[in-house]
Write a structure and sequence with these properties.
By secondary structure, the chain is an all-alpha fold. It has three helices and no strands. It has helices spanning 2-48, 56-72, 77-101.
Length: 108
């Protein structure tokens, strides 16, 4: 009987954790959507002014900054860097697409 109560309590705890995870996932999606709205505006600005889609110096600064933040948050900095690189690749792809739509070529 005690084992059944322990299992029931474990299932309640699991449901609570899963609800929190679902809320965090939803927040991450909304935050990424907002980030991409901002980076789209950056892409339009760059294309309008003939600036290159990629900015390697800015990307390096961001990687260093996010690695520090990850370390402070006790998150694996390598994971944070991989995540940022994934996002940046997608942003650059968007910027290249915006540049091409505005008559500019790929310039870095």
């Amino acid at each position: 009987m005690s084992e059944d109560r322990n299992t029931d309590e474990a299932r309640r705890m699991l449901a609570g954790y899963r609800a929190s995870i679902d809320n965090i996932d939803a927040a991450l999606i909304h935050m990424l959507a907002e980030r991409f709205r901002c980076t789209k505006a950056v892409g339009v600005l760059k294309a309008t002014h003939g600036l290159p889609p990629a900015d390697p110096a800015r990307e390096a600064e961001q990687i260093a900054r996010l690695r520090r933040l990850a370390d402070e948050a006790h998150l694996d900095p390598d994971f944070a860097e991989k995540f940022l690189n994934f996002v940046v690749r997608e942003v650059i792809r968007h910027h290249e697409q915006i540049a091409a739509e505005n008559g500019a070529g790929k310039t870095g």
